[in-house]
Automatic annotation (TrEMBL), chain A:
Location of the Thiamine pyrophosphate enzyme N-terminal TPP-binding domain: 11-124
Keyword Flavoprotein included in the entry's annotation: yes
Stated name of the protein: Acetolactate synthase
Cofactor binding remark: Binds 1 Mg(2+) ion per subunit. Binds 1 thiamine pyrophosphate per subunit.
Protein family: Belongs to the TPP enzyme family.
E.C. number: 2.2.1.6
GO biological process: isoleucine biosynthetic process; L-valine biosynthetic process
Gene designation: ilvI_1
Domain Thiamine pyrophosphate enzyme TPP-binding: start-end pairs: 391-539
UniProt-listed InterPro entries: Acetolactate_synth_lsu, AHAS_TPP, DHS-like_NAD/FAD-binding_dom, THDP-binding, Thiamin_PyroP_enz_cen_dom, Thiamin_PyroP_enz_TPP-bd_dom, TPP-bd_CS, TPP_enz
Cofactor(s) it depends on: Mg(2+); thiamine diphosphate
Reaction catalyzed: 2 pyruvate + H(+) = (2S)-2-acetolactate + CO2
Domain Thiamine pyrophosphate enzyme central: 200-334
Automatic annotation (TrEMBL), chain B:
Family matches, as Pfam families: ACT_AHAS_ss, ALS_ss_C
Purpose: Catalyzes the conversion of 2 pyruvate molecules into acetolactate in the first common step of the biosynthetic pathway of the branched-amino acids such as leucine, isoleucine, and valine.
The protein's enzyme class: transferase
Protein name: Acetolactate synthase small subunit
Automatic annotation (TrEMBL), chain C:
Domain Thiamine pyrophosphate enzyme TPP-binding: residue ranges: 391-539
Cofactor note (record): Binds 1 Mg(2+) ion per subunit.
Native organism: Candidatus Desulfosporosinus infrequens
All copies of domain Thiamine pyrophosphate enzyme central, residue ranges: 198-333
Pathway(s) per entry: Amino-acid biosynthesis; L-valine biosynthesis; L-valine from pyruvate: step 1/4; Amino-acid biosynthesis; L-isoleucine biosynthesis; L-isoleucine from 2-oxobutanoate: step 1/4
GO terms for MF: acetolactate synthase activity; flavin adenine dinucleotide binding; magnesium ion binding; thiamine pyrophosphate binding
Reactions accelerated catalytically: 2 pyruvate + H(+) = (2S)-2-acetolactate + CO2
Entry protein name: Acetolactate synthase
InterPro entries: Acetolactate_synth_lsu, AHAS_TPP, DHS-like_NAD/FAD-binding_dom, THDP-binding, Thiamin_PyroP_enz_cen_dom, Thiamin_PyroP_enz_TPP-bd_dom, TPP-bd_CS, TPP_enz
GO cellular component: a single term: acetolactate synthase complex
Length: 563, 159, 563
């Protein structure tokens, strides 16, 4: 028999799985359905691990969590129609935070496209505003090229979600695939920045008196945390981070002033407002930082903006120097260039910063069990490699303020879209990605209920996630706003008839511990850490706890309440 | 077969997306789409050229009509219409070929609207066939750049 | 003071609520968030009742269930960004089944639109393919007109979901609203059909020998069940229904052959295939009925298609007499005209049809507790006004086949999109809509987990829903397809480590009863019905039960297995 006649009969589904394996995919978060039958059959012969969530939203957030803590492209899969539409929130979440995902959706057979078929949805149309790019595969021979392109688009430049829609007949058909030669004439990936501009930046740094580095998610995406630290240390530059930038410098680093913006530290906000040079790296001047008042932001400063996305430069503020490129490569060259110039004279500036830090520390009452206290306690007891996932709300802000994140990619939180329910499935993805590291989820009773069905996924795989549930019986953040700005006219924020979360956990086969008092906190957390499986700690918190400081809506960041 | 549809649609943001999205979703094969103002500030006019047999075109019309933002759809294909398209065509020329190209443009009643040392740009209006014909004629000289508006059409009067 | 000087300016939020009240809205299913603060504040002063789900998907499915069982327009509300994207599946679900909804979403302030703001999503862009129409309100004075238009569009012609996107500043601004004069020149509502065509139909009915009425969701929407029954009885016409048409004739009516299509009754499928006249009313020749083979469907028949949507006519099959109009008005006129004509000669046809019914009844094994047995028992213990809501899967088909639905609008199931998770929240909407009627939810363990968080909503509102959970530990329908068509290669259809659903229910404060054997079924159901609150009945079912008969994929409806 000749070599050719022994060629394996390939179907679209097998070609797809092989292409995924070639991209280094070892896990897919997927949920089956009618049109995916050919793919699920082929999956039985593939080495790729498949994790079943209990709702497709759980699957896409898990793929997202996986991506955030590894830097790899996360992969999820859903069937046509409702399976695909259930992914929309997760895709939008990843899009807003620039997380690399490849999202695979089944689709009805090509002959039925556009005929209002059973479980048909125009998912490429629906997700057009929230994907970096998308494909509807009409010829199975194109699969290798499409998969290669999808991973390349998802993972390079400014990362983001890419969707591939796969009709059932394409998956089932036998095919001789075409080579995987990418055809992306409309896509360029910036890398090294303009050297002339980098020299200008070095000079500006050397001459400034009151510099601040404003670092965000782009620093994490580029793996530029280390060079940023070296730069900050060399030139004695203070650093503020966005929510997405947490972890680019260890939280205890002397140069770190804290988070900037709506619930940032006073020092960070004052520093940005008063600085004469703002070195913005991998950030987008988002309204959580600027209050939507671009013209009032860092008005005394020469602004330098380093980003990989040309569309972000000049979008909110006009920088004096802009550098398009990969943050790590640009900062490395900048660091080199700095060798040949003098360090800036910043002693007075640091005196002022230290004074602000002393006068306005982040603080909370120590007389009762508060979320802040719990968060700090977890931080003391859990190691440096622990991954912290959060949901959205007050607890998210307290975690950002008080949890000591030491390394990049140890913090997974929904920043741009602010998706309640993100936390639990993201923790699932994170634990699967890094099985040897501890994963702690900080969540609230509102957020936790949204994707509570994923407790089954945790139980099935015995993922030893430690769930810290800040249970105050209310939608805390919205309630705080109604308290502060609507004269305590509370509306729609009271959860009557919350379940007994400890009993729910136990019904799912997960250990549950209730904690009602200050004295129990340390021991409960210690017990949870020691327990070899998943644990839910249900902390009874007062609904009156506030996130402070806070920049009131529409006010510039120097006007904070509760400083 | 190509059909030409004229649709009166509401003039505000998002309308183009809705129509384009409908066509993409139902996999209708559009050849060209042009949108312009009308005398009524609340309405725009879309001229859509689409491939399909009678059954497909009937579906296209009905689906378009269903959209709340579409006020009317007329199939101009079988009707007596005046149809036009405008094209701007940049052609490579040398001292040797310049006069031939100018002559060709003249034959097609095109106007030269831009002149450079090594190229010139011709503006041409006419039906699609005429424009296709011109492009074919000048291609051997070197077609540098081509911009076409897509077809617009208006019914001939009965009297 | 002149009359004019007394004119009051109102907040956009108040104008909105007043406009909703004017439309007869007494209930909104909503979930708050930052941009909706002005609306939630105004809500405190409105008589409109607000129900809080635990996930926005729960809210939109509840509004959908409410609409299905009343015929009124359902209303739901979500905040911007993730709140809005969480509605997408529910909107698509309503769109596919032509359910009237007005979906209100908050949006970021108008000046921040398109700037990648916190919790911003292009929801009008995302939902373009799945809404009948949508509005982004930029001027609060337009609110009365927009609300009036939205309700009109949602509830007339072919009903469907209409979205209204409301930026925060529009809700907060104080204005004098414009009058509510609709401007819908591009929208017509067909009503009476063409009289000459109706005369043709009456004549064709009179002259045929093997007629069949094929009735669907449009009959229910038009409230045409009564006149359809009269016509069927007068002219001795057999009737088949789609899944969406269940209830248009009472279960057990001598003219009703059953459901047609993929899991329909053999007699129904044979009759459609063999008939010489097919009177299609309020149906769309969907692929669950035609197997996607329009050219092989009812090939011997003269096809009459009565529908309110012109775009559905001749979309799938060649149509001999199309009539665009309201099904009730058209059928009333057909009946009138028919009075003066001789009845068709159909005795032989009825002999044939009855023979099919006798040879191929719906059946199941009686030696063990089967889902079909549970469903029939439910039917025996319930009354004519009981509502049955289902999720999606095998259980859905069994409910359609075996539950005796007597009246229109007592059956709510996701037909077109086939959304797992629809059931629990839809049951909530149904119970709230009709608090005096018994509500059964028939669900499976896969579907039930998807929106399990809504157990809290049931507990909070004390809704006495009886949840019939047919628990087989697998994704039944997909598994059945793998069993029949993939050589029993089961892939990812085992729901490993399901929670103890009785314990979950109890953790939510809901009574839970496990039923493992045949003998317990009736008493458990009776106990649940008698109990004055919500009950979850967890029936342990074998994963090997099949839904039969089944038309294999791609085969015409005469080729059924297991009939």
């Amino acid at each position: 028999m000749s070599m050719n006649s022994e060629k394996k009969r390939l179907t679209g589904a097998t070609v797809l799985l092989e292409a995924l394996e070639k991209e280094g995919v070892d896990v897919i978060f997927g949920y089956p359905g009618g049109v995916l039958l050919p793919l699920y059959d082929a999956l039985l012969d593939s080495s790729i691990r498949h994790i079943l969530p209990r709702h497709e939203q759980g699957g896409v957030h898990a793929a997202d969590g996986y991506a955030r803590v590894t830097g790899k492209v996360g992969v999820c899969l859903a069937t046509s129609g409702p399976g695909a539409t259930n992914l929309v929130t997760g895709i939008a979440t990843a899009y807003m935070d620039s997380i690399p995902l490849v999202v695979l959706t089944g689709q009805v057979v090509t002959a039925l496209l556009g005929t209002d078929s059973f479980q048909e949805a125009d998912i490429t149309g629906i997700t057009t505003p929230i994907t970096k790019h998308s494909y509807l595969v009409k010829d199975a021979r194109e699969i290798p090229r499409i998969v290669k392109e999808a991973f390349y688009l998802a993972g390079t430049g400014r990362p983001g979600p890419v969707l591939i829609d796969l009709p059932k007949d394409i998956l089932a058909t036998e095919v001789e695939p075409l080579p995987a030669d990418m055809n992306l004439r409309g896509y360029q990936v910036p890398s090294k920045g303009d050297s002339g501009k980098i020299v200008e930046v070095a000079k500006a740094l050397s001459e400034c008196r009151r510099p601040v580095i404003y670092a965000g998610g782009g620093v994490i995406a580029a793996g530029a945390g280390d060079v940023l630290r070296q730069l900050a240390e060399k030139a004695s530059l203070p650093v503020v981070t966005t929510l997405m930038g947490i972890g680019c410098l260890p939280s205890v680093h002397p140069n770190l002033l804290g988070m900037v913006g709506m619930h940032g530290t006073v020092t960070a906000n004052y520093a940005v407002d008063d600085c004469d040079l703002l070195l913005a790296v991998g950030v987008r001047f988002d309204d959580r930082v600027t209050s939507g008042l671009g013209h009032k932001f860092a008005t005394k400063a020469k602004i330098i903006h380093i980003d990989i996305d040309p569309a972000e430069i000049g979008k909110v503020i006009r920088p004096q120097i802009s550098i398009l490129g990969d943050a790590r490569l640009v900062l490395e060259e900048l660091l080199n260039t700095l060798e040949s110039v003098e360090s800036p004279q910043v002693a007075d500036w640091w005196d002022r910063l230290r004074a602000w830090k002393n006068d306005h520390p982040l603080r909370y009452d120590k007389d009762r069990m508060t979320p802040q206290m719990i968060i700090e306690c977890v931080g003391e007891l859990v190691g440096e490699n622990a991954i912290i996932a959060t949901d959205v709300g007050q607890h998210q802000m307290w975690t950002a303020q008080f949890y000591p994140i030491v390394k990049s990619r140890n913090f997974a939180t929904s920043g741009g879209l602010g998706t309640m329910g993100y936390g639990l499935p993201a923790a699932v993805g994170a634990q699967i990605a890094r099985p040897d590291d501890m994963v702690v989820l900080f969540t609230g009773d509102g957020s936790f209920q949204m994707c509570i069905q994923e407790l089954a996924t945790i139980a099935q795989h015995n993922l030893p996630i430690k769930i810290m549930l800040m249970n105050n019986g209310v939608l805390g953040m919205v309630r705080q706003w109604q308290k502060m700005f609507y004269e305590r006219r509370f509306s729609g924020v009271q959860f009557q008839a919350n379940p007994d979360f400890v009993k729910v956990a136990e019904a799912y086969g997960i250990r549950g511990i209730r904690v009602d008092s200050l004295e129990q906190v340390r021991s409960a957390i210690t017990e949870a850490i020691k327990h070899p499986g998943p644990v839910l700690l249900d902390f009874t918190i007062s609904p009156e706890e506030d996130v402070l400081p806070m920049v009131a809506p529409g006010k510039p960041i120097t006007e904070m309440l509760g400083r | 077969m190509l059909h030409t549809l004229a649709a009166l649609v509401e003039n505000h943001p998002g309308v183009l997306t809705r129509v384009a999205g409908l066509f993409a979703r139902r996999a209708y094969n559009i050849d060209s789409l042009s949108v312009c103002q009308t005398d009524d500030p609340e309405l725009s006019r879309m001229t859509i050229v689409v491939h399909g047999d009678d059954q497909v075109i009937e579906q296209v019309r009905n689906q378009l009509n269903k959209l709340v933002i579409v006020h009317s759809v007329t199939d101009l294909t079988a009707e007596s219409v005046v149809e036009r398209e405008l094209a701007l065509i940049r052609i490579q020329v040398s001292s040797e070929t310049r006069s031939e190209v100018l002559q060709t443009a003249d034959i097609f009643r095109g106007r030269v609207v831009d002149m450079g040392r090594t190229n010139l740009t011709v503006e041409l209006t006419g039906d699609g066939e005429k424009i296709d014909g011109f492009i074919k004629a000048i291609r051997p000289y070197g077609l540098l750049e081509l911009v076409r508006t897509g077809k617009i059409a208006i019914l001939r009067s009965e009297t």
